[in-house]
Design a protein that fits this description.
The chain is an alpha+beta fold. It has one helix at residues 3-19; strands spanning 22-25, 30-33, 40-47, 53-60, 71-72. The chain starts with a helix and ends with a strand.
Length: 73
């Protein structure tokens, strides 16, 4: 995926978090998340020994959720 496509996905996710409703879908399942008004936000940059660099974003709030490969709807 291009960096522009990745940025579009991040913007879409950010908008949905701001709205307070995020629906995520996998091939076989979906989940609706309702982030609380206050969340914990963590941003981490990792540089691997092989030269790969990643940005990890974690947004956490009270509640139950599933994990896995998902699409933002």
């Amino acid at each position: 995926m291009s960096r522009e496509e990745a940025a579009d996905k991040m913007r879409d996710l950010a908008d949905k978090i701001a709205e307070g409703r995020v629906e995520l879908k996998t091939q076989n399942d979906s989940i609706e998340l309702r982030p609380s008004a206050r969340v914990d936000f963590e941003l981490e940059v990792e540089e691997e020994q092989d030269g790969d660099i990643s940005i990890e974003v974690e947004i956490e709030w009270s509640g139950k959720a599933k994990s896995g490969d998902v699409e933002i709807n």
